[in-house]
Task: inverse folding
């Protein structure tokens, strides 16, 4: 039961990253204590215990998951690395290791940060719902492994075993400390590379404010119960209308 297992103790795998740190800060605000697992440490905060390790290493994970009932998995190699073997090792095999470590440690809930690109076939999607099929031709290796990762996590949902899972699918995340999206755009503009339009200028792209992504993760975690319809399901998360780009 949640009380006995300490329902206010959770783990954030990838908690040193852009999204992970925002998630950790919000969880602390909400009275959680956080076990942070990452290959690198980027900050320190009261209420956070840092565990350095690679998520492909089950023993290292197990020490971070001790007495934890809820796990957020928001670690991934950077999409820009385009390193197929690294994506496969971390996003596919590593996620299998995360699931196994959760089961061994008696974790009850796992919330995965997936990506909206898992349903993107290269053509505009407007008002896309979660019943869209996975992309048959994913746009890159990163997306291909995000699809496999999401399937693994959602298929691991097992009510009789008391292990519940859910996935949140954001697209381009922006907000304070964003290391990628806005800095890349600003850099391209500075170098005079924003003078070209790919397509006819009406392409759609979706951006989500980091606090909304965090909110979606915490709502999912707090509503994940055996009698909830969200068990084993993915959810797109966005601000509102897609922005014309
Ligand atoms: P980020 O690079 O800032 O954070 C990822 C974190 O994962 C880093 O701290 C990194 O050290 C850690 N990590 C990488 N490999 C690891 C390993 N083997 N073991 C342990 N930790 C490891 O990235 P982010 O933008 O915060 O992305 C977080 C999640 O959100 C990822 O799963 C990403 O696929 C997903 N996502 C991000 C965006 C976006 O626009 N940023 C959009 C859609 C989905």
Result:
């Amino acid at each position: 039961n949640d009380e006995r297992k300490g329902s206010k103790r959770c783990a954030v795998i990838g908690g040193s990253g852009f999204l992970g740190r925002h998630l950790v800060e919000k969880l602390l605000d909400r009275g959680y204590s956080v076990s942070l697992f990452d290959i690198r440490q980027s900050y320190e905060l009261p209420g956070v215990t840092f565990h350095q390790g690679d998520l492909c290493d089950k023993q290292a994970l197990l020490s971070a998951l001790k007495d934890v009932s809820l796990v957020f998995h928001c670690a991934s190699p950077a999409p820009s690395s385009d390193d197929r073997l690294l994506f496969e090792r971390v996003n596919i095999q590593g996620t299998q290791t995360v699931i196994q470590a959760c089961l061994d440690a008696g974790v009850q809930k796992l919330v995965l940060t997936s990506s909206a690109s898992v349903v993107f076939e290269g053509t505009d999607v407007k008002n896309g719902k979660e019943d869209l099929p996975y992309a048959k031709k994913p746009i890159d290796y990163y997306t291909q492994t995000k699809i496999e990762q999401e399937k693994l996590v959602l298929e691991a949902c097992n009510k009789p075993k008391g292990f519940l899972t859910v996935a949140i699918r954001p697209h381009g995340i922006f907000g304070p400390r964003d290391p990628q999206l806005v800095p890349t755009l600003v850099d391209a503009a500075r170098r005079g590379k924003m003078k070209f339009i790919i397509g006819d200028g009406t392409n759609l792209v979706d951006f989500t404010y980091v606090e909304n992504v965090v909110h979606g993760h915490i709502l999912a975690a707090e509503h994940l119960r055996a009698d909830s319809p969200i068990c084993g399901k993915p959810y797109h998360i966005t601000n509102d209308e897609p922005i014309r780009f």
Remarks:
- Helices lie at 2-5, 18-29, 58-64, 84-105, 141-155, 181-190, 210-223.
- Confidence is low (pLDDT under 50) at residues 1-6.
- Residues 14, 16-20, 38-40, 54-56, 74-78, 90, 94, 113, 115, 170-173, 179, 181 surround nicotinamide-adenine-dinucleotide (CB under 6 Å).
- The longest strand covers residues 33-38.
